[in-house]
Amino acid sequence: MNSKHNILYIENGLGFGGALVSLGNLLSKLDLTKYRPFVVMSYENSYIIQKNSLVKVKIIKRKNPNILLRYKNTIKIIDNYFSVFSKLAKKIYSFLDYLLEIEYCFRLWLFIRSQKFDIIHLNNGIPYNLSGILAAKVLNIPCVCHQRGFGYYSKIVNKIACYVDFYIAISVAIQRDLLKAKINKSNILIIPNGVNLAEFTPDRNVVSYPMLVHQKMNVRYFGFVSCFVYWKGLEIFIDAASCVFRKHPNWIAIIVGDIPANTTKHINYRNQIYKLVNKSGIKEQVIFTGYRNNVPNLISIMDVLIHASILPEPFGRVIIEGMAMKKPIISTNIGAPKEIVRDGIDGILISPGNVTALANAILALMENPVLAKQMGESGRHRVEQYFTIDHNKLKVETLYDSILKM
């Protein structure tokens, strides 16, 4: 009987969102008779352990990652008042950032060297995993990089990126981005994210929430699920909702999510969103739920799910979650969503930032329940064909097997 193969997953993301959920789903379906998974994370987070109690997790923290981002306000001041020194300052900050990356790389290398891993699987993109790539290269361990977002590629990053044996692109849009970094196309596999159909089922019983109880007659709900960052298009959603409420004052907009971190920048953005709702006079018709673990229950209440990103989306996990629950989708037509949603079949695609188009799409679907139901049924069928965690897991395991035979 063959022994199990040890797979090391390195998670260096933000500690929330689609990348972490996707890793949890993959580990929950991984064939444990063939593989023994081990996860290294750079931050404290119990999600993986809660989702997969059999998976070993080790925390190797990174010290102050990305100094450039932390000091960008300082750099702006230098740009405005001391432009002569601007380039020098940026180079110094970049150099310090690389020093911290080298220090983290050394600690990561020490740990990996003490174990016996057959494959290193990086759960995030190139810029987040330079240390993992270098450690795999030095220790001669096959390396897989799960590219889940659009990258920024300096000359140094491009050189290190070539050390990865295989890339998993979660969409065609991500594949194109990798090709810009001069990654060999034959080393890129497109494996879309997958949804767990057992969690996101249209037969789920609708749960009553105190916050969703209204005295109005004919209450109906449309929703938005995302973290609060500017490019997700939350302002566009609120402006469109305001237009919709003029015609249907009994309808309610549900906003599920919150800011990604309690920094001054993110708190100010959330306050800006609250002020926009108040200024628009729709406070009684908009419900902010905050972060929730029961997202499927909340989606089940919605008649329509909206994805309003104003910049290209690497994938858009919530889209396939809504489709799995037979909800018609309204999404912008940039990035990966246009690969997932077929316009006029599974939902409606609109141009980014177009408030009128979004409002009209909401009205078109919610005023025509027959059309909405048809699109929901079509979306569920599409997810079953292409976007399940079982499909995802099978393709990833096929890649592992091909690497192990090399």
- CA-based gyration radius: 22 Å
Largest sheet: 7 strands, parallel
Structural class call reads alpha/beta
Q: Kindly identify the CATH topology of the largest domain.
A: Rossmann fold
Give me the strand/helix succession.
EHEHEHHHEHEHEHEEHEHEHEHEHEHHH
Low-confidence regions: none
Q: What is the percentage of strand-forming residues?
A: 15-25%
Portion of residues in helices?
40-55%
As for the number of domains, it is 2
**CATH class type of the largest domain:** Alpha Beta
Annotated CATH homologous superfamily of the largest domain? Glycogen Phosphorylase B
Tally of strands: 13
Report on the structure:
- The chain is an alpha/beta fold and 406 residues long.
- It folds into two domains: 5-194 and 388-404, Glycogen Phosphorylase B (Rossmann fold, 3-Layer(aba) Sandwich); 210-386, Glycogen Phosphorylase B (Rossmann fold, 3-Layer(aba) Sandwich), CATH 3.40.50.2000.
- The chain is 44% helix and 15% strand.
- The chain contains 16 helices and 13 strands.
- It has helices at 18-29, 47-51, 67-70, 72-81, 86-114, 130-138, 155-161, 172-180, 234-247, 264-279, 295-301, 317-324, 337-340, 355-366, 369-386, 389-404; strands at residues 5-11, 35-41, 56-59, 119-122, 143-147, 166-169, 188-190, 221-225, 252-256, 286-290, 304-307, 329-332, 347-350.
- The strands form two sheets. Strands 3-2-1-4-5-6-7 form a seven-stranded parallel beta sheet. Strands 10-9-8-11-12-13 form a six-stranded parallel beta sheet, with helices on both faces.
- Strand 1 (5-11), helix 1 (18-29) and strand 2 form a beta-alpha-beta unit.
- Helix 1 (18-29) crosses helix 16, helix 5 crosses helix 6 and helix 12 packs across helix 15 (369-386).
- The longest helix is centred in the first third of the chain and has 29 residues, at 86-114.
- The chain starts with a strand and ends with a helix.
